[in-house]
Amino acid sequence: MSTYGQEHNIYHIKFDYYHAMRIPNHHVSVEFLRYGDSISVHLLSEPMKALDNKWNHTKIDTTFNLDKSDFDKIVAAVKQVNCVDITSGMDVMGLDGSTCELIYGGVSTGVSYKVPSPDSDTEKRNLNDFMFACKAILHTVEFDPKEIF
Q1: I need a surface site. Which of 1, 62, 74, 149 has the fewest CB within 10 A?
Q2: What is the CATH number of the domain that holds 117?
Q3: Would you say which domain of life the source belongs to (predicted)?
Q4: Domain range holding 83?
Q5: Rounded to whole angstroms, how far apart are CA atoms 30 and 63?
Q6: What are phi and psi of 99, to 5 degrees?
Q7: Phi, psi (rounded to 5 degrees) for 52
Q8: Model-level pTM?
Q9: What pLDDT, in 10s, does the model give residues 20-66?
Q10: What are the CA-CA distances from residue 148 to residues 2, 75, 91, 92 (Å)?
Q11: Number of domains in the chain
Q12: pLDDT at 4 (0 to 100)
């Protein structure tokens, strides 16, 4: 079974990761927007809201352009994510307070996968392609996936 994104052009990709217990990188968001051959990337990394401001220096909020060839690699990775594989692990409750969401689509349509604790029992839950796509996104914005997952 193939999904919309596996058969049509993708103009928008968004990665969102939340971790309930992490202070730096509590929320990481990477959004790619394609306009023709121009690709804009918005990277946001926010620390957990705390009573003091000692983690504010870890906040990142930046936008930059990306080469189309790099975007095409992300698109290829995202297209490998199989919706049947994702649904086979839907009976899992979040184990560590983390949630990862991958959204992609065309101009007016899209697909969204929301996965709790994606780095837990990844292979057993058939999340290898999902995690590969997420890690490819993180590498593209020069984040070490080991610091996120």
Answers
A1: 1
A2: 3.30.1560
A3: Bacteria
A4: 4-148
A5: 10
A6: -140, 135
A7: -110, 175
A8: 0.90
A9: 988 899 999 999 999 988 999 999 999 998 656 888 899 999 999 99
A10: 29, 21, 23, 20
A11: 1
A12: 41
